[in-house]
Amino acid sequence: MHSLARLTAVAALGTVLYLPAVAQEQEQPNTRIQVQVNEVILPVTVTDDKGKFVSNLQAKDFRVLDEGRPQRLTFFSHDQKQPVVIGFLIDQSNNTRLHWKRYQDAAMELVWNLLPGDPRYSGYLIPYANDAELAVNTTTDADKITDKIRKMKPGGGAALFDAVYMACTRRGLVKGEPYEPRRVIVVIGDGHDSASKKTLDEVIEIAQRQLVTIYGISTMAYGFDNPDREVLERLAAETGGHVEYPLNTLYKDLSANTYFAQPSDEGSYAYKVGTGGYEAEISSNIIKAVGAVAGDITTQYVLRYVPDVDPEAKTKVFRNIKVEIADLPNVKIRARRGYYPTALPGSN
Q1: What is the residue extent of each domain of the chain?
Q2: Which of 64, 129, 140, 205 could staple 92 via S-S, CB 3.0–4.6 A?
Q3: What CATH class has 84-247+278-297?
Q4: From CA 243, how far away is CA 293, in angstroms rounded?
């Protein structure tokens, strides 16, 4: 029987108990990461009105409000080689059949981009259909993940929420999380869930408690209604990430007359389905989406502070955070919306 080395680290939501990956695979299913507030960690993305990253800011440019009360930063970093652990969550449901091969290729490109063989970067793979599965546990070897992705095939329902919950609770941890490396999830899917035991609210809470930033690359095809778009948007917005829609911009640069220029069985589109122009445009958009997500993850500012709270204020279950940059009022700031200052009920 292995003796489990317990490594304690001060986390943004408190003290985290780390278990080695091999032990996690064998250990009891009810193991939880126990946390209490000590220092808040806040990854922040800043873009201009054209969506380009603003990368020349300093600590003095940021103002952080915790429940409206200004905070003093204890740490500031803008290292473009920040250590990160990334969960690749891939929708394998029937909804992905139309463009499956393209998104399969995009997922592998994203893995190779974000896991360059440097020990500072690690990742894991959770595909989801009727169930979520930890197909590849945390590793620095990109090929282990891409080899598994290459063999995947779509079919069945979509257990997205269970996949997010699994990513936050059931994979092997890396020493130093969530400071170095930070925790990120990338969902390649359309936000649809038809098979999970967990709810959207539950997984947003666990992601916020575990300091996970969620990004999305939507698989929603152009012209199709997606009632679940808000699900993916909410997962990202509540945790400080964002969603890319590579297929929704397929015709954005065309005039109305050009758009309806070529009637066909598939529809009156300038890019005829199956043609080289259509395929090239889709491939280009997916590559841009992959680059945008990878760029966001690697160019974030990281702020930390010990909460200075009003001693007279009523204790809150969830504390709201707001980040401001006074000298640049027109920039867009993405950061998680708040944190839980107490441990998850029943985690003790």
Answers
A1: 7-78+301-339, 84-247+278-297
A2: 129
A3: alpha beta
A4: 8
